[in-house]
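Data card: per-record layout.
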Amino acid sequence: MCSNGVNATQFLQMIDLLDDHVAVEYRWAHRLAHTAENGGCNTASEKLHQAQSMLAEVRALLDEAKSSFEDDLESGAAQTTAKLV
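The structure for this 85-residue chain is written out next.
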């Protein structure tokens, strides 16, 4: 379905792809944090855990964006109108 020039299916798939990408970065931040901790680099480990926390927030925001987009589609807020020019 298209709404206001946006293919809704593709748009939702792109959000899912972005979320998948951020999930990979989340896991890498976690691994690197533990590697730094095991190497005695506690400050670096702490910063990487903070980055991991921020990536979790990004994933939550992506989920909210997806839900909001779906809600807008269902409510008809994103209706397409055609105008004769």
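Known properties of this structure: The helical segments are 8-38, 42-75. The two ends are 23 Å apart (CA to CA).

See the next section for split statistics.
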